[in-house]
């Protein structure tokens, strides 16, 4: 009985010492263990009221989203070589993972999709108008696997990617 009492007393002393060390760390160190840290609590202060005119309601992405695909025209008309080269770089950054290096929908990520991503050199894709391609890249394809990339890729870069894809031509 004496051994059990001494063992329990020793374990209690060790646990109290550990608790004291942790508590001292929490109160005396610059960074605690996140059990009591400052945080933003929006319900504790009134919300700021925005001044009128701060949030745009026209132009920008809204202009592209509301326009019909046939009305969208690339601001990079003519697609000079530097636009196509920039589009190729952007394709490698944003599109290649799904559509692949050969533009056939056999990218590393795209292989796991059902259905597979589209072949960018197919007649179906190449016959799309640049405006339709812009809408599909920006807002996705309903019922398809193309994600909406409007928040990921800015509009001029989307047009560069379209110029590059159009420059590929149809697969023979």
Keywords:
2 domains, 172 residues, Cytochrome Bc1 Complex, Chain D, domain 2, elongated
Describe the overall structure.
Helix 6 packs across helix 7. With about 170 residues, this protein is an all-alpha fold. It folds into two domains: about 1-40; about 60-170, Cytochrome c-like domain (Cytochrome Bc1 Complex, Chain D, domain 2, Orthogonal Bundle), CATH 1.10.760.10. The chain has helices at about 1-30, 60-65, 80-95, 95-100, 125, 130-140, 155-170.
* Highest-level CATH class of the largest domain: Mainly Alpha
Q: Structural class, judged by helices and strands?
A: mainly alpha
The CATH superfamily of the largest domain is known as Cytochrome c-like domain
Spans of at least 5 consecutive residues with low confidence: none
Biggest pleated-sheet summary: none
Looking at the overall shape, the CATH architecture of the largest domain is Orthogonal Bundle
Oligomer: single chain
Q: In angstroms, what is the radius of gyration?
A: 29 Å
| Backbone shape | elongated
The string of secondary-structure elements, in order, is HHHHHHH
Count of alpha and pi helical runs: 7
Q: What is the CATH topology assignment of the largest domain? A: Cytochrome Bc1 Complex, Chain D, domain 2
Query: In whole angstroms, how far apart are the ends?
Result: 90 Å
How many domains make up the coordinates? 2
Proportion in helices: 40-55%
Strand content: under 5%
| DSSP strand tally | 0
Average pLDDT taken over every residue: 84
């Amino acid at each position: 009985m004496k051994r059990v009492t001494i063992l329990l007393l020793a374990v209690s002393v060790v646990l109290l010492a550990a608790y004291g060390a942790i508590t001292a760390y929490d109160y005396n160190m610059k960074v605690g263990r996140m059990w009591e840290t400052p945080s933003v609590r929006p319900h504790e202060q009134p919300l700021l009221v925005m001044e009128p005119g701060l949030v745009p309601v026209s132009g920008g992405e809204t202009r592209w989203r509301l326009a019909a695909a046939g009305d969208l025209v690339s601001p990079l008309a003519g697609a000079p070589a530097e636009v196509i080269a920039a589009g190729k770089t952007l394709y490698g950054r944003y599109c290649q993972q799904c559509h692949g290096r050969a533009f056939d929908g056999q990218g590393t990520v795209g292989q796991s999709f059902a259905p597979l991503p589209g072949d960018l050199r197919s007649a179906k894709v190449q016959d799309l108008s640049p405006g339709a391609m812009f809408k599909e890249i920006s807002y996705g394809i309903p019922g398809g696997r193309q994600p909406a990339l409007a928040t990921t890729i800015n509009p001029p870069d989307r047009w560069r990617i379209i110029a590059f894809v159009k420059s590929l031509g149809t697969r023979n």
